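Box S2. Input/output pair 1.
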Amino acid sequence: MDDLVEFLVARIMDDNHAYAYVADTMGGEALLDSHLPMLDLIEQLANDYKAMAPSDSRSAGLAYALRVLGQSYAEHPAYQQEWRP
């Protein structure tokens, strides 16, 4: 699961860099309908999972949510099929 969390954080960073490029190129208004808030929330979930004790009753649900969110990057070459929920 740690590999999936690292993968998600890396993809979020890639996406944030892409949004920064768009903002620099086209102006900040180009980001009004962006997924930046969603990326921030996913990154927060990944950080919460890393900080959570395995015995925490929420860890199984959070792990499942991260697996579902990871599917949006299933076409990425580093995505591993065993991460599917």
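Box S3. Input/output pair 2.
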Amino acid sequence: MAEIAVMALYDQIIDNHGEFLEGLRHRFLDEDRKSALQKFESIGFPTKKDEEYKYTNIKEITEKNYNFFPKESHNITKEQFDELHLGEENFDWIVFVNGKLHKELSKVSIENVEFLSFNYALNDENHKEVFEKYFNTIADGNSAFTDLNLAYCKYGFFLKVPKNVVIEKPIHVFYISQNQEENTFYNTRNLLIVEDGAKVEIIESHHNFDDTFVLTNSVTEIFTYPNAKADWHKLQNDNDTSYLVDSTFAKQEKDSLTTVNTFTFGGKLVRNNLDFIHNGSNINSFMNGITIIGKDQLVDHHTAVHHKTPNCESYQNYKGIFKDNAHGVFNGKVFVDKIAQKTNAYQQNNNVLLNEGATIDTKPQLEIFADDVKCSHGCTVGQLNEDALFYLRARGISKKEAQALLLYAFANDAMQNIDIEPLKEKVSKLLAEKLNVDIEF
């Protein structure tokens, strides 16, 4: 514990948690918040001695002091905000600036659904039963970051899509930090409930406009009911003074489909924790990721799929391109229970290192206790194919352009299941931009 206690953020939390709790009064959560802080105090932040953080040193994050209650005022201009859009004029969007929901910047046309800011929903007596039924029921309570989120969560949104309601327009959720004079710690919390036969698509992005550091500790819980479909796309392209720890948990019932796509192009340190829980037959789960980073950035993907029931499928496809002194981590786990016969699970992680200083630690894992399954996993780490590179150069393409085209093709298949054209185009453009190549769309 002594090794952990010297960290600035840890000391700040332990010394001042009474003051923090005073500003976070939410009915039934008071005792849970105190309990979560007590658990955090006994466990502390993970270190490289912890297996789950063996390759990810978070000392850079925890040695800083942060302001837990950001200044609400901002001066975001329309031009700045427009640059964040994907060209999605026909979308709905929800905008949080410095933690607060701004209706004047948002566009919400969805009907027949329950949509509230998280803070409002916590204080709304009409949603008490819903929160007690769903809130924090699938989020992992054995993590320092999920414990901290439970203790301090205030920002984010609650969305319940009723039975057989199909939301035709994707919803883009923007989390923006601006006008902060101190390093700022956001604990965002999202709760999505998609009832029988319903359908919704969410895009989530985080943006720091300041030179001060921002640590976003986000927890999302997704509940997908029978014959429902929920897609959640994470577009991570923040600046070099941004840290993101994202923990997403998805619980699916029979005949449902849930997708989480994670596209990571920016941020100083990004940790993505993704857990899928199967709770019925004929479930389909899709997890795709593209990571392109350089300099001394670090991106860590930790995924887990819990096959608890028969006749279900899961598909994981993560691609990574690393240059300069960037560091990538992938740890994908598939658990197949004894009763989960006829499981079909696929897991693949492919990586390209462009410089000697770039590194990737990859560890796909299968734990199978059923005997009638089709499960496969694999990983590759290497450089570009020299024969393919020679083929392109022999046709008059420069070495730089040939390399970029091969890398673009390498990453492209991880976004084939995106059915939102503006998002697919945005990811394609970011790919081309990061690879310094001109590609027509």
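Caption for Box S3: Residues 8-22 form the longest helix (15 residues). Residues 1-6 have pLDDT under 50 and may be disordered.
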